[in-house]
């Protein structure tokens, strides 16, 4: 089982700091793919204890966040992680809570059709609207 080989990278990330980069052996906890092979799609979750999880796209990040059995009880106890997604056009890491996601496009990522993220300057939806949108998508 590839997901059982998940590697957690210890990193400390403070507010305003750059997100960590996946190492050559970091695996997506959802599909088991090597994340570093797809830098244009990386999504990241960093918990308060400094553990980073890397995903091969926003779609798998959402699956992880909203499918509680995939999250170990040790992760749940740490609360909500800091989240980053890769902005589709600029290929930079952006705050995943402030990104907009295009669902139903014909864009193909490492695992097929992908929800790509887009930044729109200073406009940022509330966390409540982001969570509601993602929960609706996950159903």
* Contiguous uncertain segments of 5+ residues: 1-13, 122-128, 135-139
Strand content: 15-25%
Order of helices and strands: EEEHHEEEEEEH
Number of strands: 9
The main sheet comes to: 5 strands, antiparallel
- Please bin the fraction of helical residues: 10-25%
Tell me briefly what this model is.
This protein has helices at residues 58-66, 73-76, 127-138; strands at 9-10, 43-46, 51-55, 82-86, 93-95, 100-102, 108-109, 112-113, 116-118. With 139 residues, the chain is of the alpha+beta class.
What's the layout of helices and strands?
Elements: E1 9-10, E2 43-46, E3 51-55, H1 58-66, H2 73-76, E4 82-86, E5 93-95, E6 100-102, E7 108-109, E8 112-113, E9 116-118, H3 127-138
Antiparallel strand pairs: 1-3, 2-3, 2-4, 4-5, 6-9, 7-8
Q: What does the model show?
A:
This protein is α+β, with helices and mostly antiparallel strands. It has one domain (2-138). The chain is built from three helices and nine strands. The protein has helices at residues 58-66, 73-76, 127-138, and strands spanning 9-10, 43-46, 51-55, 82-86, 93-95, 100-102, 108-109, 112-113, 116-118. The strands form three sheets. A five-stranded antiparallel beta sheet has the order 1-3-2-4-5. The protein is globular.
């Amino acid at each position: 089982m590839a997901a059982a080989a998940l590697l957690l990278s210890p990193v400390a990330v403070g507010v305003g700091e750059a997100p960590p980069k996946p190492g050559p052996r970091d695996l997506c906890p959802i599909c088991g793919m090597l994340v570093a092979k797809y830098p244009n799609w990386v999504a990241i979750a960093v918990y308060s204890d400094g553990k980073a999880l890397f995903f091969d796209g926003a779609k798998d990040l959402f699956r992880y966040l909203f499918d509680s059995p995939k999250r170990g009880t040790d992760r749940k106890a740490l609360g909500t992680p800091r989240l980053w997604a890769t902005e589709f056009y600029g290929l930079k890491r952006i705050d995943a809570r402030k990104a907009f996601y295009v669902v139903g496009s014909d864009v193909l990522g490492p695992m097929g059709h992908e929800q790509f993220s887009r930044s729109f300057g200073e406009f940022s939806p509330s966390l409540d609207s982001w969570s509601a949108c993602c929960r609706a998508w996950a159903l």
